[in-house]
Structure formats: structure tokens, C-alpha cells
Design a protein that fits this description.
The chain is of the alpha+beta class and 200 residues long. The chain has a single domain, classed as q2cbj1_9rhob like domain (Jelly Rolls), CATH 2.60.120.620. Helix content is 24%, strand content 30%. Strands 1-9-6-11-4-3-2 form a 7-stranded antiparallel beta sheet. Strands 5-10-7-8 form a 4-stranded antiparallel beta sheet, with no helix packed on it. The relative contact order is 0.23.
Length: 200
Amino acid sequence: MMHTASFDTLVEHSLSALCDTGIAHLPQAFTSSFCNLLLQEAKERSYHTSHVGAQRTHNSAIRSDTISWLDTQESTPATQEYVQFLQQFSSSLKEQLFLPLSGWEGHFTHYAKGSAYHQHIDNPKGSNRRILTCILYLNPAWQPDHAGQLEALTPQGPLMVSPIMGTFVCFRSDAIPHKVHTCHQERHALTSWLLREQVV
């Protein structure tokens, strides 16, 4: 089933950290063998330029990553399993935190050398349906001089996360400003959002 160290432990640690600080940082949450399958797919996919703001304009001065969107009919087993994980993770958090979660969206994210993403909030002032941001990093043998860290501004102060393979991060999309420091090495991740229920 899931190639996580332990799905129940991942959920338990995420619940505790989200309640305490609004962000969960879980190193080695997913196995290297599973992440390597995802990395292989990441390197084979087609990417397009990313956008910023409600107008969805491209501005490389703000963000210079490229993305490849996921869908519910992903063809490779590893990506299908990750989609299943997102669905089960969302269901668990919905049940235990009483969050109005329904659905998800996400993409593979690629940063070339020299790429970065300036500080931002994924859901400023409730402008979209994103409730929780989830990131799985896919970079083996990542070294400190490769830079490219996620810097999240938590109520307790800045949290620096190196994008090491298997590390999973989850945080409130409306409350945690964050940025990606300039990468000195090619960098891959899966970035996803757990979404608010749509009001009919």
C-alpha cells in the first residue's frame, strides 16, 4: 500500500504539529524507493511556466519554477499511489480536525539551477479553496551548499526545510508565509493542496 514509514504515524504527527504551530515537518516520511519512482516520472514529464496572483500571470522575478499538473487518472503506479495517499490523508484530517476538506489539486514542481520563489501565502485572505499545503521532496543526496530550502514563517519563528528526498511538509495555506531560496542544484518536489468543500 502506501510507501510511507507509517501512515498512522504520519497522520498523528501532522495533527499534533498543525494544531501546535500550523506546520508539520516530517523527515523520511516516505521511503527512498517510492520517492525514486516519483523522481523518475518527474524527470520524464512535460512542464510549463508557473503563474502568480489571481490574474495568473507569469512573473519570473517572483517565481521561476516550472510545473506539471496532476489529475485523478495518473497513469503510473507511483503517482496513483501518491494520489491515493492525498485522498486518505485528507479524509483523516477532515475527520480528526473537523476541517471542511473535499478534494485536492497538485503538481510536480521543478526548479532549475538559479530558480527561486519569493515569499507568498498560498491562500491570501481566503481567495481560493486551499486549506492545507502539502509538499513531498524528491531530491537524493541534497547537500547544504545546494541551498533551495523552504523557509516558512511560523508563529514560533522561521523554519528552514531542506528539500531532502522523503521529507514531507504540511501547513495551513492561509496562514504560513513561505518562500523557496535560490537553488544551486536542480530540485524536484510534489506540491499539493487539500481543498475546502464547495458550497452549492
